[in-house]
Amino acid sequence: MEIVKPLEENKIDPTLLDKIQFFKGPLGVIPSSVKTMSYHPNVADAFTDLNIAVMECKGSVTPEFKRLIGYITSFSSGCLYCQAHTILGAERFGSTEKRLEEVWNYSNSSVFSNAEKAALDFASAAASVPNKVTEKEISQLKTYWNDSDIVEMMGVIALFGFLNRWNDSMGSSLEDLPIEKGEKYLKKPTNWTVGKHRV
Q1: What pLDDT, on the 0 to 100 scale, is given for residue 198?
Q2: I want to staple 73 with a disulfide (CB 3.0 to 4.6 A). Which of 36, 58, 104, 127 is the partner?
């Protein structure tokens, strides 16, 4: 289903290939989307820099929770590729099975704090098209999070807005490790499938 086949690693500029090894830390793989971006090395290079900057944690938003924000953004957008990647990333950053299994239904889950629920409500509204952020979501968010934390969270939401459109439109092929985690944590509660993202 992919529109453009990802570049083989031996065809990626060696300097860029070295840089995009970064993704193996949080994901265990270099995403096929990044290999596709590598047809234009400046795009893959800039995207990697943006990803590193957005996922850097300076305040109260943890690496695990950033991936769960990415999941809710992707769930709201309907991007199956990014749902699997974010669940994998959250697991690799220490999320519990219960959080991974219940994040799609966080508002009714006891494993998410009120602060986390406010952030995930904001992510869901911000990822919607048209945008559904209202004074209610903003007020709830500001009750629990400072301005710096909100900027970090918005960076994650915006990053996945880009990725959701890229991967769903390009039909990016999903790698084995995220497929495994999607099937483990998402298949039963949300009817998640690989969909168009088959190799």
Answers
A1: 86
A2: 127
